[in-house]
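Lab notebook, bench 4. The sequencing result for the construct came back, and we need a structural model before the next group meeting so we can plan mutations. Quick request posted to the team channel:

Model the 3D structure of this chain.
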Amino acid sequence: MTSSTASTSLPPNAAVSINPASGEMVERYPYQNSGELDKVLSQAVVGFRKWAATRKQDRMQLLARLAALLRRDIDGLGRMAAIEMGKPIKQARAEVEKCAVLCDWYAEHGEDIVDDEKTKIGDQAYVSYLPIGAILAVMPWNFPFWQVIRGAIPILVGGNAYVLKHAPNVMGCAYLLAHLFEEAGLPEGAFTVVNITNDLVSKAIVDSRIAAVTVTGSVRAGSAIASQAGAALKKSVLELGGSDPFIVLADADLDKAVKAATIGRFQNTGQICIAAKRIILEEPIAAAFTERFVTAVSQLKLGDPLDEATYLGPMARFDLRDELARQVEASVEQGARVLFGGNKIDGPGNYYAPTILADVTPGMTVFEQETFGPVASLIVSRDVDHAIEMANDSEFGLSGALWTEDKGRAKELARRVETGGLFINGFSASDPRVPIGGVKKSGYGRELSYFGVFEFMNAQTVWFDRE
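Done. Here's the predicted structure in token form:
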């Protein structure tokens, strides 16, 4: 691993990993050319055939081995995430452990998920779930291990192959994962990494050796990739942006709600698609919540991601910090009020102060756009109906939270919130036991649970002696 000062004059022929805590270059990973991509795709087809022919129980045993390897290497993996994208080290290790838990869950339940399914016709017909081929995955940097594992494992459970195009700034994490899959015993080509530019991503999408595409990223990237996949008559699954509402009603437990909002907004330095970005407070409790929330956020420690005490690290990319600062400045000009933070931190690192904006209303930049960083927007609603109205007043619909002590009413209100997930008296999270995905411009399709397996399976009807 080399280290030198980052420069904007670096040649565009390599993915460059920059340590956001120092601004120094960690490593350069030369991009693969068209010929090298061709070899990877051919390997993926061979790997798919071997993996698809592997017994289901043997596939699940491999996942158990992978879980053990993830736990064995948890310190090194966590350190790589901290160095490449600034994730605080405790959170980085927790991410790796979460990956291992997912592998354990599918190792236990995966075989049942892909077993043949009976139909209401009886023994005369059944549904068989068959893999479709190599799936191209375009993944983001914010959870460099979890984003890959949560998509790859369900895909592999079904017997498909997985071709990873990871974000350029976390290629070190990508290659570490590839080595672990190889060590676990996955056939060569069943999990492969491609380090390619956007033009070759487009070439891979339309290549006949790629069966489908899955994307986690921005609306712009998802729209472009889905258009190309659609033109090639290939399925795509998209998990895109979010501007998740965190609704706190007047009867909520404020202490618990404040704690959840603090974690739900500022974990991973706020760089989470399902973070609590728009905190909507029913008027009777708005002042009390705000006071406690400011106190809680002011106690978060910002610093070196390798420091065990750090809760907020640097933002992963310098351009994204500039964009976040622009969004905050624009919103203040539109009438929002800074209660805490609201500024870049001077120094070589890519730090932005944890920020709370009050008096946010529909139409403001931080209300309308996704804020991918440590900025919380406080919005006051007149009543419950007004809170739901503002929650739905977004082009996004990924996830959300609703806080109330009346669980019966919560179930009724949940059906009115236009999101792919809703967490009652908690903050949004992903878990292998339940699906994750969005509506509207947050994308389509689902990951995790059995939904994530079936997204890329051929549900083949087998019918005997039909007259």
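Confidence is low (pLDDT under 50) at residues 1-11.
Will bring this to the meeting.
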